[in-house]
Design a protein that fits this description.
Order of helices and strands of chain A: EEEHHEEHHEHEHEHHEHEHHE
Shape of chain B: globular
Largest sheet of chain A: 9 strands, mixed
Number of strands of chain B: 25
Largest sheet of chain B: 7 strands, mixed
Helix content of chain B: 40-55%
Oligomer: heterodimer
Helix content of chain A: 25-40%
Structural class of chain A: alpha/beta
Radius of gyration of chain A: 20 Å
Chain lengths: 311, 982
């Protein structure tokens, strides 16, 4: 592992990975109420086959290559100490040789080669998002912690949330629900105004198969969150052929009803992640490359007729 | 050339075009042709009805065309008139001498080559259609895209108590008037059909009647051989014009009077640039962009009776003749550096309609007479000036009386009792106003319209503006409403009628168009006459000025969706209500592009910085595009020039040489290899800037003085405070306030270029200045890496960069300082603004690549808008722009924001987002913001399938236009603007 990201002196204790920020997206109108800035963390305990942000899965920084931005100047080839770059190859990078030193990304004039994931301090992150506070205030917006999975770095995320809260900013967490409850309750929950909680599959075996881990912890946490005082919106990604199977959706629906939930968000599948995965040198195994059809969406909504379905 | 001569000499039906007038006099003049290498040297002489070809160019040749090479001469002969103008613009033809005669020569060429020219135009049209079809979204998307615009008006926002309410809204229950739609106004639907289905026609009425009067009564001297006092001459000619014009009451209209004898008329001002259409007269119905109809009679009248009279009697040519074509004028002639509006118009201002409504012309005349009587014996000039104003006001009264007579005549002939009653009412109103004070809303609107017609017969229809229409009309609305407030049905009918009256007024304002010669289609694409209307803001004492009529005007704006009048809204944070700002945003969504939004506090602060009285500053209204005029008190020619700051930058990079013009124009400030620090380079830039400012100001002042001689404006003067006491015309500094307003173009392009030079060359040493300059000169061909670095790795204005904002403020301060050194010919200051009409496209077209990474020929950014790729986050744009030092910018700015609603996004949500952007921008101290609520895909579809989008409004930089009337470069500029969604 690269020395830059090994958390030698930083927070979180020795041996743990230092949290990386993927990016901050301003002026988001889709990730909670009002105008928001979304803070994307890098790293996720799940490995969903259809992950919309594949660049957010791994905890380590990665090298991304976008062929369309490449001007062919060859500086990357010149600076690469491992001879891992070949200008003539369409994918450019020999991922087996590359050791993620990012010398090429620093040299690239057009941003075709980019380092994905940047370390940042709590102060830097907070300062960067607070520039838009006037917009949050005017619109009832705020900051959304997203990812990746913010709870993978509970202490770091908690300190950010706490600072934002102190500055009078509405903080919303988007989570996959896979976290240790006691640490979550201690570090992050007190500073949250709202949580969006994703539930994908009810069957633990299926969940393990498609998402890489079981769902026991997730469902436990869901129930605990319902009992907490923080408003929570459950969300269901509609992945064609996987989560949108009628049996699964009906099971989720009754689970939610059992918990007394009345509102749900459905997140239709978005195939644009294919390009992002390729830029990182990943193979795309989940092949579906089109959006949901109207029929698929209508069938899914049917399963939640007892709920207020929000966009 | 000898073929050309023979074609006239041998053919009587052509030869008669060599005549100057019906008295059988000939136009005698000569034109020379020369290439720079002197390989071609010829002249054509027109003398006493014969055309002669001369081997040598006479020393006293009237006009000479200079070409880079013989090839260009041949190209010109084969070119269509629009192509000729483009050759002039691009420097392939340089005109020395009288440019009106240049257009006369084009007319003669067109007379011989018309058929070929028309074929060429038809081919060009086909080629264009093919090219556009290639870029168009697939046919299948068309319906959805059209729907995305048209479905917006299906649901309208209702006002809710939690939105708040401005105290001045005393009568309207739902100020948003959400139950009124276009379908409720069949009269307006008919007017819109006329508006969109009638091709504008060149209207010779004004030009002919005035020219005849001047021929009879003399221009320079009276019939008795005494020099004319220009004010009196213009007043008498104006009065005669108003008496003789045809009084027209249009079918079904609630207002009487027109600015033109045509349904939609292109009104001509031959003492400005009216003669520019001469060369196009035969082809203008066939040109690609915005064709005009022209009857054969009009061609005859203009060619023989009107235009020859004005060959030397126009602002530009008078200076060429008297001052020997000074350098400052030569620069303007070349289009690439600055464009002086005074060659066209001077009256970018807002008259005092409040006074007219309150006193009537009779009341104003009484004041003028009282002032005349109190004038000291020696003040003859003052007396004559006041007399001229009185004469003009009498001209208005004469026109109103003629309108009343016409309405009575129509009433007698009308079978429909309802319409007859309307006509009788209209006759009564025209018998009363504008002579006497108005007492009802209908009288007030008619009084303004009658005066508006008169003002346009005197002043060029370019940017003359109406002012705070809501406040002007509110007292009359209240007087009407008080009578019916207890009868809900009658009250509702009154509100409906109020909307209809204001809308009729809007539609009347669309009856005339400024003359746009084809070159103007590239310089001012799709511009109408930009009659600005202003609503909202605060009163002169600083109270909330939003009133019932504010919402009535906004309703008219929404239902009509027309480009002119140009509606501007003042919003004072903390004083005006959220309900008002939200409604402004809704109207922007519904119309896609209007009204433009202004931060009242910031504009007023900028005006106060100039030392104006607070009560006057708080009474500002937008003029033409966005520029503030203190209503009725301020003659501020707010668009005296469009000034390319980029030209100064290019000259600084080239040791004073302008690269496209290939002209060693400015001071020698050093070549790029000589600069040792960024500060040295900035100083070079400053010196080039100062040089161009000196030149442009000199020309502006010369043109201003020429206006005093050729066209003083006594009617307008009678409606501007200060002139009566001073006894001086507004063109001579009679107004209370006398500034000149400049539009500085290319702020983002210059800022980003300067920062790129500073960072890459001097701070980080990534590249040498020479290498950067070479890359710029080569339009970045062969240096893709540097190009990519510039586009991706240098902080840009609008990206949320402190450095870029600091640099932008430095450029703002420089502009303000350099223009601030000068006084205008009326004794007033020069003030600067950062907006561009569509000249960011025109100037961009004539500029090379820039260190910002902008490629050669591409448009600059509109107004002070950041580059499209500055940030994906709209808020970065908004924050950076809001941090500019607007106190230095008393001539306002134009900040474009293109927002694309998501498919299916709820009406209320779209409005809510716009509202939050606008509100926060204003809280942060932003000055002005104008929205385009449309997707690039829709615009691309409109390029290919214009018939479905004839009323699609877009904001250019300050004004509104129909997208489909724009030139392709302008359309592409709009498409390439950053599109912000959620």
């Amino acid at each position: 592992m690269n020395a830059m990201v090994a958390d030698a002196a930083g927070e979180g204790g020795a041996g743990r990975v230092r949290p990386l920020i993927l990016r901050i997206k301003g002026n988001s109108l889709d990730d909670g109420p009002g105008i928001r800035s979304v803070l994307f963390f890098k790293g996720c305990p799940l490995r969903c086959a259809w992950c919309h942000n594949p660049e957010s899965q791994r905890t380590e920084p990665e090298l991304s290559f976008d062929g369309e931005s490449c001007v062919g100047c060859g500086r990357c080839e010149q600076v690469c100490p491992r001879k891992a770059i070949r200008l003539r190859k369409p994918e450019r990078i020999d991922r087996n040789k590359c050791d993620d030193c990012f010398a090429c990304a620093d040299a690239c004039p057009g941003g075709a080669l980019e380092r994905v994931g940047t370390p940042a301090t709590v102060e830097e992150v907070v300062e960067a998002v607070l520039v838009d506070k006037p917009f949050f205030d005017a619109s009832g917006g705020g900051v959304t912690l997203s990812g990746g999975e913010p709870t993978l770095h509970l202490e770091f995320a908690g300190r950010i949330a706490r600072a934002l809260k102190g500055a009078g900013v509405h903080v919303l967490l988007e989570t996959c629900g896979h976290f240790r409850w006691d640490a979550f309750e201690r570090n992050l929950l007190p500073w949250l105004d709202e949580v969006y909680f994703d539930v994908k599959l009810v069957d633990p075996g299926e969940h393990r198969r498609w998402c890489g881990v079981g769902n026991e912890l997730i469902l436990e946490n869901l129930a605990k969150l319902v009992d907490s005082s923080v408003p929570m919106l459950p969300r269901v990604p509609l992945v064609p052929g996987v989560t949108d199977a009628e049996e699964n959706l009906r099971a989720i629906s009754s689970l939610f009803q059992g918990l007394g939930l009345r509102r749900v968000a459905l997140l239709p599948y978005n195939p644009t992640w294919h390009g992002k995965a390729r830029a990182l040198g990943r193979r795309v195994e989940f092949k579906r490359d089109s959006f949901l059809t109207k029929g698929e969406l209508a069938r899914a909504r049917d399963c939640f007729h007892a709920f207020e379905v929000v966009a | 050339m000898s073929l050309f001569a023979r074609a006239f000499n041998k053919k009587p039906d052509r030869r008669r075009y060599l005549l100057k007038d019906h008295l059988g006099r000939w136009i005698n003049w000569s034109i020379g042709f020369r290439t720079r290498d002197d390989r071609v040297q010829q002249a054509v002489e027109f003398r006493d009805g014969q055309v002669h070809v001369l081997k040598a160019i006479p020393a006293d040749v009237d006009v000479m065309l200079e070409f880079p090479a013989p090839r260009d001469v041949m190209d010109m002969i084969r070119a269509t008139p629009d192509e000729i103008l483009n050759m002039v613009r691009r420097g392939r033809i340089v005109i020395h001498g009288n440019s009106v005669l240049g257009t006369l020569f084009n007319f003669y060429v067109s007379l011989l080559m018309r058929d070929g020219q028309l074929k060429k135009l038809a081919r060009a049209r086909e080629a264009d259609a093919k090219a556009v079809a290639k870029e168009a979204p697939p046919e299948g998307a068309h319906e959805r895209l059209v729907e995305g615009v048209t479905q917006r008006k299906r649901s309208l926002l209702k006002w809710k108590p939690e939105f708040g309410r401005d105290p001045g809204v005393s009568y309207l229950r739902d100020p948003y008037l959400s139950d009124l739609r276009l379908e409720d106004f069949p009269r307006l639907q008919k007017f819109l059909d006329v508006h969109f289905n009638t091709r504008p026609e060149i209207c010779p009425e004004r030009a002919l009647l005035l020219t005849e009067w001047f021929k009879d009564n003399g221009f320079e001297e009276t019939r008795e051989g005494k020099p004319w006092v220009p004010e009196l001459r213009q007043a008498l000619a104006f009065k005669a014009l108003m008496e003789r014009r045809r009084p027209i009451v249009r079918e079904g209209d609630l207002l009487a009077g027109t600015t033109t004898s045509k349904e939609i008329g292109v009104v001509l001002y031959p003492d400005g640039v009216g003669t520019m259409i001469w060369g196009e007269l035969l082809t203008v119905p066939h040109r690609l962009l915005n064709p005009y109809d022209v009857t054969p009679e009009t061609v005859e009248v203009l060619h023989h009776e009107v235009f020859p009279y004005w060959i030397w009697r126009n602002f530009k040519e008078k200076i060429r003749e008297e001052k020997g074509n000074p350098l400052c004028q030569q620069i303007d002639d070349r289009f690439a550096v600055y464009f002086l509006w005074k060659t066209v118009a001077l009256s970018h201002t807002v008259p005092d309609f409040a006074k007219l409504l309150a006193k009537g012309t009779r009341g104003i005349v009484a004041d003028l007479r009282a002032e005349m009587e109190s004038a000291a014996p020696g003040e003859e000039e003052k007396r004559v000036t006041l007399e001229a104003m009185i004469t003009c006001l009498e001209g208005l009264e004469a026109y109103a009386a003629n309108l009343a007579g016409e309405a009575e005549r129509l009433a007698r002939a009308c079978d429909d009792p309802a319409r007859r009653a309307e006509l009788e009412e209209l006759a009564k109103i025209c018998r009363k106003v504008p002579a006497h004070p108005a007492e009802t809303l209908h009288e007030a609107v008619q009084a303004i319209w009658t005066a508006w017609v008169g003002l346009h017969m005197e002043n060029t229809n370019a940017g003359l503006s109406i002012g705070r229409l809501d406040r002007l009309l509110q007292p009359y609305f209240e007087a009407d409403a008080a009578k019916v407030k207890d009868d809900p049905a009658k009250f509702d009918a009154l509100v409906r009628r109020a909307v209809e009256l204001v809308a009729c007024f809007f539609m009347r304002c669309t009856d005339h168009l400024p003359l746009i010669p084809d070159i103007g289609n590239y310089l001012f694409g799709g511009s109408s006459s930009d009659q600005a209307i202003t609503v909202g803001g605060v009163t002169p004492s600083g109270e909330d000025a939003v009133c019932d009529m504010t919402y009535v005007v906004l309703k008219a704006t929404e239902v009509l969706n027309v480009r002119d009048p140009n509606v501007n809204a003042r919003y004072y944070p903390g004083v005006n209500s959220d309900a008002y700002l939200r409604r402004l945003c809704e109207v922007n969504f519904l119309t896609a592009a209007t009204p433009s939004l202004h931060n009242d506090r910031v504009v007023i602060d900028a005006l106060l910085e100039c030392g104006h009285e607070p009560e006057d500053a708080r009474d500002w209204a937008a003029t033409g595009c966005v520029e503030p005029t203190m209503s009725g008190k301020h003659f501020g020619h707010t668009n005296c020039m469009m000034f390319s700051m980029v030209a100064a930058l290019e000259m600084a990079l080239n040791d004073g040489r302008h690269p496209l013009l290939e002209w060693n124009l400015g001071p020698r400030t050093g070549s790029v290899d000589q600069f040792e620090s960024f500060e040295q380079f900035f100083e070079a830039f400053r010196r080039q800037f100062a040089f161009l400012v000196d030149q442009s100001v000199e020309y502006n002042n010369l043109l201003g003085l020429e206006h005093q001689v050729l066209r003083p404006t006594p009617l307008l003067s009678s409606l501007v405070e200060g002139t009566t006491r001073a006894g001086r015309d507004v063109t001579k500094g009679g107004a209370k306030y006398n500034s000149s307003g400049v539009a500085c173009i290319g702020l983002a392009d210059v800022t980003d270029s300067l920062l790129a030079i500073k960072k890459l060359v001097f701070d980080d040493g990534v590249v040498s200045f020479c290498e950067l300059k070479d890359a710029v000169d080569a339009n970045f061909e062969g240096n893709a890496a540097l190009f990519a670095t510039l586009r991706k790795k240098v902080p840009l204005f609008g990206s949320g960069s402190d450095e870029a904002v600091t640099m932008a403020n430095r450029v703002v301060a420089l502009a303000r300082e350099e223009f601030g050194r000068h006084k205008n010919y009326r004794g007033g200051p020069y003030v600067v603004g950062f907006w561009s009409m569509s000249n960011h496209v025109a100037f961009g077209n004539l500029a090379g690549a820039l260190p910002s990474g902008r490629l050669a020929g591409k448009a600059f950014t509109p107004g002070l808008t950041p580059q499209a790729h500055a940030s994906e986050n709209l808020l970065d744009n908004v924050r950076d722009v809001a941090r500019l030092d607007f106190r230095k910018v008393a001539n306002n700015v134009a900040f474009n924001v293109k927002v694309a609603p998501k498919p299916g996004e709820a009406h209320a949500d779209v409005v809510e987002h716009l509202f939050h952007y606008a509100k926060t921008y204003f809280q942060l101290g932003g000055m002005q913001m104008q929205l385009n609520v449309v997707t690039s895909d829709t615009l691309r579809d409109a390029m290919a399938r214009p018939e479905a989008y004839r009323n699609l409004l877009v904001r250019i930089s300050g004004y509104n236009a129909y997208f489909v009337t724009l030139n392709r470069d302008m359309q592409r500029e709009l498409i390439e603007r950053a599109e912000f969604g959620g």
